[in-house]
Specification:
2 copies of one chain form a homodimer. Chain A has 14 helices and 11 strands. In chain A, the strands form 2 sheets. In chain A, strands 3-2-4-7-1-8-11-10-9 form a 9-stranded mixed β-sheet, sandwiched between helices. In chain A, a hairpin with a 4-residue loop joins β10 and β11. In chain A, α1 crosses α2 and α3 crosses α14. The radius of gyration of chain A is 19 Å and the shape is globular. β3 of chain A pairs antiparallel with β3 of chain B.
Chain lengths: 394, 394
């Protein structure tokens, strides 16, 4: 049977994303979880099981390593609480595991919280600095995230021609959407010129091509689809959810079959999720998407990897406004990682909520005007090593 | 429906536990996983999904943070691989999540690997040292694991009378069993006198009351019980599996209702697992058990928390030989954490394998002489905060 079509999301909550210096990890978990409970009309004591997605416990805070980091702030003692970590796919994989448990009938309800506290450290305490200190075999050689994705941008430009201006257009689009979003980390527009003139991080990736590091938490409550109407009329159904680990983390750049023009993990996860949801023509059938724009080049190759357009057509896809808020397939209407921010464990859950909000007509000034039947959320983690794709429908 | 009775373990593998300086984290993952595959008569490419249990990624090694740490060493690319972390319940909770996915029909098979590499660091790189360096709110105040469990031992002695000699008997019993186990970290007997005269770590816990830190990996392959006979005749069925987060990690010692005489997490997890398995009289119905003897006092309170005997009767339980290899309810026939060692993410999976081996009559010189119908495996993590209990049967 499996989980496709079996699970409904009946409650959603999230914190403001940003420099949440005034909120602890626990504060954010409580705010997101209670937002979801309130949305579903449930009390915390109604919840029989929970999943927590936090990627880098101990790197930034002392919280997040185990289920207790969800049980403790909520006072939800005696519950089974699992902690999942899977790079940037962490939040969605926590959701995926909760779906299995509810689908098999072990629980009727589950709470899923994604949370990451990334801003309470000085630069020398950053993830990269810590990894270098521990002798990380890749970071020590300078292979950081911007450096790795810059290789993709350069390879893409070499194969298909200049991509720098198209990358800037992704930044402009996502900042435009984020400016409409009161929960986004950055809520201001940027211009093409600002993006092109921003300080260079890793050629051709400039500062405004990069998503920020961010504090934030997001939560959903799920039940079996057949039970959803007991709780609310405002629910969405998970039509497909698939994870793929398609590349090694430490040997990523040595994989002989990697062309640096996209990410196999995304393609595999999308193909599986599409099969589950009965999607054969992604561009025609998907109405809105949140995709993993950790860097602007990533969003462009995501269009291609997700089958929204063909290889090399990502530049036209952004440049012709297809992915704009009023385009044929609006992408990152929330502002995306670029503008919303990227608290790693939280992002996957947050993206699912933003797609659900579009389906339910709750996206406010970012609401897409056309009717939304099916939406997609996508995360990509490690050096393109892990991807999760979720398809949501009414 | 749920998972109780629905899942069978059809393949098992594990490395030698110990100072595996000659084996990397990846080496151990490969050895354990391929042991399980060979045992099940399967090829790695037969596996559609996997779960990895590693508790402290980055604390000891750079591996273990995500599903890629299983996909990469096995070359199992394109698979969904989830990493779970839940203190000492990590390995069992990885198994539990895999059970949900197989029970709901998403996959027919799943590979579960628990692994931890703990010995490749100098003492100043130990977990406690690293936590102190990061400003861990409890470790900085000296509340280490031996210190915390010493509070339990002292409270127990205050309430029920001297427990130090009974603790020593747990060490003697588990070293005796471990001496029969070629995969145990320590394979030698100790005497009561040696345990009582060992250097004091945290009064009354001496060096030979403590389990060691250890390298190791263990793996199982599961399928739905109805499919098990396709693969092998040597399988066991999971009759119950339950997790509980019953205490906060950071506020553990401030919980007003904690009497320090046992662990609520164990009691809650056991109660749920017993209900699933139809167990009403644990002592009468369970034939063999692997329990979490991180310290000898922990095994004694486990007897009580698991309902093997009443409150305060744990001392008699060990002293009268009830839990000995030839006793009425043999406990830690493998040698336990005390002698087998405790690679955190691996232990839960390893314990399940040792109980399964007893049920299948494969425990060699440690095989219990009486027939074994039902066995129990139990982990307890954090400061008694998280527990998982698994009931296995034929």
């Amino acid at each position: 049977m499996g989980i496709a079509g079996e699970i409904a999301i009946i409650g959603m909550g999230k914190t403001k994303f940003g420099d949440n210096f005034e909120k602890s990890y626990f504060d954010m978990v409580v705010e997101a979880a209670h937002g979801a409970l309130e949305d579903a009309g449930l009390d915390a004591l109604d919840i029989p099981a929970a999943w927590l997605g936090t990627c880098y416990a101990y790197a930034y805070t002392t919280e997040g390593n185990a289920g207790t980091s969800l049980a403790e702030p909520l006072g939800l003692y005696d519950l089974p609480v699992t902690r999942v970590a899977n790079y940037c796919a962490t939040g969605m994989d926590a959701l995926r595991n909760a779906c299995f448990a509810v689908a098999c009938g072990e629980y009727d309800l589950a709470l899923v919280v994604g949370a990451e506290k990334m801003r309470d450290v000085p630069p020398r305490g950053s993830l990269v600095a810590q990894h270098v200190e521990k002798g990380h075999p890749l970071y020590c050689k300078g292979r950081t995230a911007p450096g790795m994705f810059a290789l993709v941008a350069n390879r893409y430009a070499d194969k298909y021609g200049d991509v720098k201006e198209a990358m800037a257009k992704v930044s402009v689009k996502n900042h435009h959407n984020g400016a409409l979003n009161p929960k986004a980390h950055f809520q201001r527009e940027v211009t093409i010129e600002q993006v092109l003139r921003a300080p260079m991080v890793a050629e051709p990736i400039g500062l405004l091509d990069c998503c920020p590091t961010t504090d934030g938490a997001a939560a959903v409550i799920i039940t079996r689809a057949e039970l959803a109407k007991r709780y609310t009329d405002d629910f969405v159904v998970i039509r497909g959810i698939a994870l793929s680990a398609s590349l090694g983390y430490f040997s990523a750049q040595f994989q002989p079959d990697w062309d640096f023009l996209g990410f196999r993990a995304t393609r595999v996860a999308a193909q599986r999720a599409y099969e589950q949801a009965g999607i054969t023509q992604p561009f025609d059938q998907i109405d809105v998407a949140e995709v993993h724009d950790c860097f602007t080049i990533t969003e462009i190759v995501n269009y291609e990897d997700l089958g929204f357009c063909g290889p090399g057509e990502g530049v036209a896809f952004i440049s012709e406004g297809v992915s704009a808020l009023d385009g044929a397939l609006p992408v990152n209407t929330s502002g995306g990682l670029k503008s919303y921010g990227h608290p790693i464990g939280a992002s996957g859950v947050r993206m699912v909520i933003d797609v659900a909000d579009q389906i339910l007509g709750r996206a406010g000034p970012r609401q897409v005007k056309k009717p939304i039947d099916l939406g997609l959320a996508h995360t990509l983690g490690g050096p393109g090593a892990v991807s999760c794709v979720v398809i949501l429908g009414g």
